[in-house]
Amino acid sequence: xxxVMFQSQNGAAQSGNALVxxxxxxxxxxxxxxxxxxxxxxxxxxxVSNILKAGSQHPTNQQANMPQATKPATQKPNNTSxxxxxxx
Length: 88
Prior knowledge:
Largest sheet: none
Order of helices and strands: HH
Strand content: under 5%
Radius of gyration: 36 Å
Shape: elongated
């Protein structure tokens, strides 16, 4: 009977030790992963910013960057056809 009691208490102690080990491993992963992902995010942000800057300097986008006076004129829609000859 004493042997059975010792085995059950020993099993509970090992279970608690495993839980502590898993918690320590999880904390270590978090300590390493959070700064790594943060640095990766900054790198991706800089890359996307450089791509957008390069795209805005592309010759096809130069018309959008022209001053207002040199932009080609656009035609405005002619709405006078909707007016009737005084008939209501």
